[in-house]
Amino acid sequence: MKFVFFVKGSNLLLLPETRAVVRQGQNLELTCLSNETRGSYVFYAYNSSQNVIYGQGGDNKRCQNFTNQAILHCDFGRPWQFRLTLLNPVHNQTIFCSRQIHETFVISNTTIFVQGKHNYEWLLV
User: Fold this and answer.
1) Cα four-point dihedral sign 65, 42, 30, 123
2) Beta pairing class for 104-115 and 19-23
3) pLDDT 10s digit of each residue in the chain, 125 long?
4) Distance (Å, rounded) from C-alpha 77 to C-alpha 99?
């Protein structure tokens, strides 16, 4: 069991941190945690020159998917948790989770490494 403790302030954490490793052909689950129980949370990525929004949750305890490439699940307990399951993760793609409360934005991100037959085992370290 892993415990996540937030320090005083408005923190946002995207797990796994730093990089997310997944085998080719497998789904990847990312979890965005917040010690705030308000605001709007968005999962997105930049592909080429466009912004891809996977899903949004938060205010009014709503949870919306915006693409068939991923599934967003929202848990409005304490802390708020937003789980994004990518159905076809893209190698070297950076996924962002952002929170907006009024005019203040907080952003966390992780980079995806897809392990296929041409990738090396050191990616798992």
Assistant:
1) positive
2) parallel
3) 443 433 344 588 899 887 889 999 999 999 999 888 899 999 999 877 778 999 999 988 999 999 999 999 999 988 889 999 999 998 888 999 999 998 888 888 888 888 885 555 544 44
4) 16
* pTM (two decimals): 0.81
Q: Which residues, including other chains, have CB under 8 Å from residue 112's CB and lie 6 or more apart? A: 19, 20, 22, 28, 86, 89, 90, 91, 92, 93, 94, 95
Domains within the chain, CATH numbers bracketed: 12-124 (2.60.40.10)
